[in-house]
Write a sequence for this structure.
């Protein structure tokens, strides 16, 4: 048997990353979960999601690396796009920021492969996020794996994992703009 390939999985939250972690481990990868989410608002919400991610990674016995919580980076990245609708250009900027930091982490740690759990959500555009990931990978000489974790009931599987482990479940994407959108409904 050869050496297992390593991969960095950017985790947006525990709910979305449960099935991707299990999928990647079953596929033979040594998984490092990178939790970088400066978009999450407020900080109390960030802590709830981080604690759930810690519990999930402990369950799957995989390494969790916690990126810096730097909301000012998020606000800088989306400046001028604050009033964009959900799934608009503000979200694109947010995806790019988080995947850029993930790629930098992978590069600094000599891990050639990375992907993200964001694509499992039916509220996210798989093709758009995958294109951002692939462009970012080219920039750093890495491999972005455009894995569609939604296939084969992936979203159902990830929800079942989170229910089984009694993980915290959020009701909005994460940023204050998404929260304001939910509050306005």
């Amino acid at each position: 048997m050869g050496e297992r390939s390593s991969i960095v999985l950017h985790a947006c939250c525990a709910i979305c990353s449960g099935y991707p972690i299990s999928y990647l481990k079953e596929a033979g990868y040594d998984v490092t979960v990178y939790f970088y989410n400066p978009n999450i608002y407020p900080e109390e919400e960030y802590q709830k999601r981080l604690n759930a991610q810690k519990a999930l990674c402990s369950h799957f016995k995989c390494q969790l690396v916690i990126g810096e919580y730097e909301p000012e980076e998020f606000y800088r990245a989306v400046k001028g796009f604050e009033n964009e609708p959900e799934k608009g250009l503000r979200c694109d900027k947010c995806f790019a920021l988080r995947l850029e930091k993930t790629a930098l982490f992978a590069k600094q740690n000599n891990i050639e492969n990375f992907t993200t759990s964001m694509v499992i959500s039916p509220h996210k555009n798989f093709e758009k996020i995958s294109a951002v990931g692939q462009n970012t990978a080219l920039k750093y000489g890495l491999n972005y794996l455009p894995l569609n974790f939604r296939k084969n009931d992936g979203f159902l599987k990830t929800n079942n994992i989170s229910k089984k482990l009694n993980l915290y479940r959020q009701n909005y994407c994460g940023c204050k703009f998404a929260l304001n959108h939910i509050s306005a409904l």
